UniProtKB/TrEMBL annotation:
Keyword RNA-binding: yes
GO MF term list: 23S rRNA (guanine(2445)-N(2))-methyltransferase activity; RNA binding; rRNA (guanine-N7-)-methyltransferase activity
Organism per entry: Acinetobacter gerneri DSM 14967 = CIP 107464 = MTCC 9824
Protein name: Ribosomal RNA large subunit methyltransferase K/L
Gene3D superfamilies noted in UniProt: 3.30.2130.30, RNA methyltransferase domain (HRMD) like, Vaccinia Virus protein VP39
Pfam families documented for this protein: Methyltrans_SAM (PF10672), RlmL_1st (PF22020), THUMP (PF02926), UPF0020 (PF01170)
Amino acid sequence: MSSSPRLSTYWVTCADGLETLLSEEIEALGIQNIERFPGRLVFKGTLENAYRICMWSRLASRVLLPIHTYELEHSHDARDVAEELYEGAISFDWSLIFAPQSTFAIRLHAEREIKVNTQFATLRAKDGVVDSFMEAVGRRPSIDTKQPEITLYVLAGKTAHTFCLDLSGDSLHKRGYRRFMTDAPIKENLAAAILQKAKLKERNPDIILDPMCGSGTFIIESLLILTDRAPGLVRRFGFNGWNGHDHDLWMSIKAEAADRHQKAMSEPLPQFYAFDADWEAVKATKQNIIAAGFESLLDQIQIEERTLADWPDFKTEGKKSLVVTNPPYGERLGDKASNKALYLGLSALLQKNFPKQYAAVIASQIEQADVLALNDPQTLRLMNGKLPIYIRLGEIKPATVSKPFLDTWQPQQFEAIEGAEDFANRLQKNMQTFKKWAVKDNVYCLRLYDADLPDFNVAVDLYGDRLHVQEYAPPKKIDPEKAKKRFNLALAAIRAVTGLSRDAIFIKTRARQEGKTQYMKQSTASKRFIVQEGKAKILVNLTDYLDTGLFLDHRQMRLRIANEAKGKHFLNLYSYTSTASLHAALGGAASTTSVDLSNTYLNWSKENFVLNGLTVDHVDEQHQFFASDCFEWLKEGHEQYDLIFIDPPTFSNSKKFYGTFDVQRDHISLLKRAMNRLATDGTLYFSNNYRGFEMDEEIEATFDVEEISNETVGPDFKRNSKIHRAWKIKHFPV
């Protein structure tokens, strides 16, 4: 039957978005005159053409041979699709296609406009095939929905129902090597499509890296391509039980494929790197590589448990590299913005480690892909099952060397601003004073002015190359119009002295806060930026809240923690956006634990961690975040910590917290509970911003207490030395 002209039309199905790439692939197999439809290509060709697609296509889902078309009569409005399928199936002699002793299954696909109970319609189509056998040969075949010898693919349409033999049997994306799975894996044929779009073979890279390898699909598909291994070489197909199967033809195609692979295995291969922060994924990758038949190549594949923050030195100079990866883009971090932080962090690492090399990165949201720093990027939209995904491909932009704003800032020449001369002079003098220190210590974020002059009651903070200007609310006795005019003069002077445009200056009014007002949104603009502090990249929000996400007066404390955290278990109470925890983690802490009542701030914390390549979503988390009242959390746990940081609010009456917290009244019980969790030779740092605060004598008698306020206040806050007070507390030696 293989020579019959009516069996010369073939359908090749694929995931939505793959039609063009699949067409290119099967054209390369010598097939011409291909018609494209959504999710399907149609061509007329020989059985050998169909077999070659089954053997060699890395992108196709199924190869179908249309056998019988049942034309519909539209003389009635109310259609019974299930009965039509039964009539269509029984009207053909299926014993011509396969033997009654074979097992079979039916896969039904209905066009969008067709309303049908798929389960019942599939059952009726099956009944039609069985009844056809009974009429023709008096015997009925058996059903096997899991591993049938014959699969019939039925397309229920508006004007006709088409019955096809599925030559592929199971979907062609199932290569047979994926024995071990991880969360949200990419299908094998989509991975191959991305590698084809990235021109893997033409690039001939020396290094292939997947930094979030999951179950190793990209690594294995790369190996299949580079060793010329046909994806259908070791799997079974749906044509084996078909009466028209040409066994000799298939065996010759298979022998040719085996020979090609054997020859290609002697060719040199790139160095592969497969990393994942999840040890289970690392194990799955190794086991799947072995299952794929590449155990002999394991010495060329560096498979390791690593976070993005823990990349080795790749020594890429003079080498061509390809980075291809499928980040964990799901909803585990809470929202689109959280997931975006992962892509920002990945992009920064790619720019630093692989400048001018090629990358292909999967995203679930186009906003995630948009943050990747690529030259002339291309975007491929595909469907991974029912989920749309975006693949961003392009050459990685080199990282720009960032210097503190004050490094390039010079005193500006500008006309005197009448009424603000003193303010302008003071601001400029402050900037000149801080310049040498900021450049020497790489300080990107600092306070430039803090109500130094009584008539200009503002705070001017520098965050990278942007300014955050807070106007302290004037006393009620001051005329509001006069205060507004003076503030506008200050803004004009700030722009003149700094040379920054209006777009780079963000303004807030800071009145004395009561209750929850300090946590309420000031705006809905939500312009968030990344700033640098030490080794850390930190997300700041200069518009939405009074607080930006980074308390500048604690810079020295955070850097101290970074220097002391290596190998230690770190606890951060009232952690806010957990920037101290982040510094500890980047400083090599064995673990970090951050506790805060606010889920908003803890989600922000996780974004900060992910932005820096640190993992926050494992069962055995190295970095943990707890939305809890610190008193309750301390009481309920028993773990010991080597390093603790506590920076509580002066006063709190959050609705999540029963009662109120007053730092002067409650610091004794807070510190006692925290010291119970401090290791014998550990260190606890305690600070607060209450200007009238006095450490209780009981604490000083019970523990080794040393005030270190002077060491934790940076040069930009020295003129306001009471910005906070800080203590170093240890257990007395036994």
